[in-house]
Write a structure and sequence with these properties.
β9 (217-218) and β10 (221-222) form a beta hairpin. 55% of the residues lie in helices and 14% in strands. The two termini are 47 Å apart. It has helices at residues 7-13, 25-30, 44-57, 59-70, 74-84, 99-110, 121-134, 150-159, 167-171, 189-202, 225-233, 243-254, 259-268, 270-273, 275-287, 290-309, 325-338; strands spanning 2-5, 19-21, 36-38, 89-93, 114-118, 139-144, 163-165, 209-212, 217-218, 221-222, 236-240, 315-319.
Length: 342
């Protein structure tokens, strides 16, 4: 049986059924449903061949070429699908819900599977996510200078039954010139949006969601503009942590880092630091004086953050005398309740 279903129905079923993405590997690599398994009906080269035939010869010749490519692989597809879905029930989509997913759905239906086909394909999914980014929702941002431990607070807030989204975790980047150190490779902006949209769909829109304050770009990925605008409009609790504590925290984090990575990070902000400060920071790295290197870097980052903070519409400062994330999370919650934010 093949049943065509809406994106809302499709996403509900992803919680219990395998998702097969019939698009080409390159398409999947750029962005995909987080729950999906790449299950390409054509390789990248085969897709290009069919596409060229369609443009040069028309629909019917392209279909015949596609069938010639698809036919020899049908047995393999059924065997692979059986491994992924031993219960013989699964979800299938392609780019627009067209011929690729239709052909795969037909084959699997013929082989005894119950197949749910996404109406409008991956394109419908992307449109649905953008609706989530534009939808009104209650957001609370944790702001503060670099080294204030904002991200560290999120899991402790979550333990207290608060809704949180770790943007830096989704982006696999900490947002500064040092942000890629110790992180996995970043996703594309498209896939970052997919990850963010997936998290938003888990949230109760009647309750606030906590996020760390970010620039619109995190490394090389970009926060969707409508969602970023809502972040800018939301109340921002600004953590004021004494500079010596921030320096100590960051120095401890970077003390085991490859010196070449630290030097590369400093060189990324060379123009902002100036020649003398850059030279001193590089020397501090070579001598292992991480606190001095951090102090120099923070002269730039603190100024940059002050500039961004000035754009906020609703700022609430909170003085903290510790970098203990569990203690600070409790203080943040008490502060938020005091100001009727939660």
């Amino acid at each position: 049986m093949v049943k065509s279903i809406t994106i809302e129905e499709f996403l509900q079923l992803t919680e219990r059924l395998p998702v097969l993405d019939a698009r080409a590997p390159k398409e999947y690599a750029v962005g995909h449903l987080p729950a999906a398994t790449s299950f390409p009906i054509f390789s990248d080269e085969e897709r290009a061949k069919v596409g060229t035939a369609y443009k040069q010869q028309g629909h019917d010749p392209a279909v015949l070429i596609g069938l010639d490519l698809f036919g020899p692989k049908m047995s393999k597809f059924v065997k692979q699908a059986t491994k992924l879905a031993p219960g013989k029930e699964l979800l299938v989509h392609c780019w627009r819900g067209g011929m690729r997913s239709g052909a795969m759905a037909w084959l699997l239906d013929f082989s005894g599977f119950n197949v749910y086909l996404l109406q409008g394909g991956y394109k419908a999914y992307r449109q649905y996510l953008h609706q989530q980014f534009e939808a009104p929702r209650k957001l609370l941002t944790l702001s503060g200078f670099t080294g204030s431990g904002k991200t560290d607070l999120l899991p402790y807030l979550q333990q207290q039954h608060q809704q949180v989204i770790d943007l830096e975790g989704l982006a696999s980047h900490k947002g500064s010139a040092f942000g890629s150190i110790g992180m996995h490779p970043q996703p594309s902006t498209e896939h970052f949006e997919n990850l963010l949209g997936t998290e938003l769909l888990k949230q109760d829109s009647a309750k606030p969601t906590w996020l760390e304050d970010e620039s619109i770009t995190i490394g090389r990925v970009q926060i969707p503009k409508p969602f970023f605008d809502r972040m800018q409009e939301s109340p921002a609790i600004v953590l004021h942590v004494p500079l010596p504590l921030r320096v100590k925290k960051l120095a401890e984090e970077y003390c085991q880092t490859d010196k070449a990575l630290l030097e590369a990070a400093i060189l990324k902000i060379k123009k902002r630091l100036g020649g003398l400060a850059t030279k001193e920071a590089l020397e501090a790295i070579q001598t292992g004086d991480m606190e001095k290197m951090v102090e120099i870097a923070l002269t730039y980052y603190d100024k940059a953050y002050s500039h961004e903070l000035a754009k906020k519409q609703h700022v609430l400062p909170l003085e903290l005398q510790s970098i203990n994330p569990e203690e600070n999370a409790a203080k943040v919650l008490a502060f938020a309740k005091q100001h009727h934010l939660i």
